[in-house]
Each structure stands twice: as structure tokens, then as C-alpha cells.
Amino acid sequence: MSAENAPAPAIAILGTGSQVPTRTVTNDELSRTLDTSDEWIFTRTGIRERRLAGPGESSSSLAIGAARAALENAGLNPAHIDLLILATCTPDLPMPATASLVHAALGLSERAACFDLNAACSGFVTAFDTAWAMLASGRYRHALVIGSEKMSAVLDWKDRATCVLFGDGAGAVVLGPARPGSSARILDSLLGTVPGTTDLLHIPGGAVSPLFPGAPAFITMRGKEVFKFAVRGMEDVARDLLARQGLVGTDLACVIPHQANLRIIHALAQYLELPYERIFVNLEHYGNTSAASIPLALDEARRAGRLQPGGLLLLLGFGAGLTCGGALVRW
What we know:
The chain is 31% helix and 24% strand. By secondary structure, it is α/β, with parallel strands linked by helices. It folds into 2 domains: 3-177, Peroxisomal Thiolase, Chain A, domain 1 (3-Layer(aba) Sandwich), CATH 3.40.47; 185-330, 3-Layer(aba) Sandwich (Peroxisomal Thiolase, Chain A, domain 1). Helix 3 (59-74) packs across helix 4 (98-106) and helix 7 runs parallel beside helix 8 (262-271). The longest helix has 22 residues, at 223-244.
């Protein structure tokens, strides 16, 4: 068989890692400055606490910690990485890419490609899909895919409708050629965007309508509309991915959805007719960490023994844009 006709190499998740800030902020602490309570927040979101970045902690520093943990878990060193994709909507700087800061800190090769990717809360699954395609092309061999966010920097801490929802953190995976006898092979992925929905979840400002110096740029959200899209979008992606592989919902051993709201996750389980215990949830302790939520949960699920060899894993995300996506992995 010629090289042109050779099948694309099987790409697998070789390692996972995560990093969160040391500071934990509970609902009770927020209730001291907001008209809210632990009961009000938990019953509407499923969140009890979140991690918030302190002095010296940033999207880049969290990403670096998660990346190092993923490399260690994969048994690789920075010299092996020739592709770095950092999913974030809270970069350290408008430019250069925060990925460049991570690249330098990790000591990656000058020949390693690196860039940021902003698809908000769908950022990790979008970066995952992108890295998989680039590795499958044969032009790259090992990729670091990171989701890292400092959401606390873009929150209005007087707006209880949004500030209680989010937290800071990072998660990372190393992707590369599947090893003999190894599992965690990527089977399929799918992305989508709904037109005309950009105003439902966004941060004002930018090149079109630049902010005045010193003016705040906070998340604004129309929660009910986003909720409806989240459930429908993730359900549609899940059903399409399963159908493309000749599978059904009951074939799934574990689902790791974007950790935004427990009601969304419960509705997703119901619509997929999937036992809730097959869905991994860590929302209670971290809140919505945007692009970091899926890889952070993935690393926790691996360390908790929730991912068994041969089990079918489904990653599902949704976010501003409005965007959605997912990936199927045979663990």
C-alpha cells in the first residue's frame, strides 16, 4: 500500500492532568456580599463551591501545571510535544497567545506549533477535534491540548445571576499515536454552531466596539435560552456521534459533559435514557470553569477509576457562539 493510501494512524489519549487554584470560595462566603444563599445557589445550579485564582495565578500558570501533570501521566517529556493548543476565553494578554507563554515555560521545541483557540465553554472539545485532525494528518506526532480559564477576571461580582456560576481551573490531555495494547483511542468527534445566537452569552467589547480604558468587560447571559440550547445541543451531538458509529446510549460507560448546571446534566441523562451514575460530575466543587471543565473532569474521572479499559467514553460540550461539540473515545 502506498503512503498516500495508508490509513490514518490511530490517535489516543496518552495522559491527563489538571490544576486548580488553592483558594476555595463557598456559597456561604458569596452570601456575605450578595443577596443569595447556599440553598439558593445549590438548588438552581448544583454548585457548592468554586476555586478562584489568587495573586500570581493566571490562565497560563494553571495551564502549565495541568500540562506538566498530563505529560507525567503520559510518560513523556516536553521534547516529545510538537503541537500545543490552548483553549481559553480568558487569555493572559490580548497578544501574544497565552499558548506561547505556556510553550516557553514548558521548554517545548522551537519547532513546536502553538496557538490559542477561543470557543468559550466548547473550547476544549474544539481544540481536541483540531489536534486529532492535525495528528491524523501525519504532520505532527504528539499534542498537548489544554483548557484553562481565569473566569473570575470577567465576572461582575455584584451580579448574582452570573458570578455564582463560574470558577477558575485548567485541564490537559496528551494526544499521540496509540500504543500497542493501549486503550483511550479516539473514535469520532463532531462540532456545530447555531447561527444568530451570539448575543445569548457574550462579553461586550473588542475590535468592533472597543472598551474605554479601564472599563470592565463582564460576562452577560440570557440564562433560559442558553439552558434550552445546552440540553438540545448536547443531546443532538451525542445522538449523531453514536449513530455514526452504530451505537446507542446504553453502550456508553461514561459521559463527561460540560460542567455548567446540574439541571442541564440531569436533563441530558433523561433525554439520552442513560443511568445518571454513568455521568461524571464534579460541578459541585468547581462551578463552571468554561474550557477547563471537561479536561478537569476527565482527569478526575481517570484518577477516581471511573474510566475502565474498553469502556466507551463520551465528551460533550456547549458554549457561547452558540457552539457545541463532542468526542467518542474507546477507553
